[in-house]
Amino acid sequence: MAENPTLTWEDVAHRYGRKIYSFAYRLTGNPDDAADLVQEVLLKVRKGLDSYSPGSFEGWLWRITRNTFLDGVRKKQRRPTTPLPEGDHIDIGASPSPDEVLASVRLSDDVQAALLKLPYDFREAVVLCDVVGLTYEEIADAADVPVGTVRSRIHRGRSMLRGLLTWPV
Amino acid sequence: MASVNRVNEHLSMLMSCYLDGALTPRELDEVVFALETDETAIAEFRRIQEVRRTMRLLPLLDVPAYLLPGDHLNEQLSAYLDGELATLEMPVVSAHLATCMECRRDLAELDKSRIAVRALPGLEPPEFLDVHRDVKQHRRRGLRTAIAVASGVAAVTLAFTVGPLASEQTPVAVSIGDLQSRHTAVASVSSGAVAVQVSATP
Question: Fewest Cβ atoms closer than 10 Å to its Cβ: which of B20, B123, B128, B193?
Answer without folding.
Answer: B123
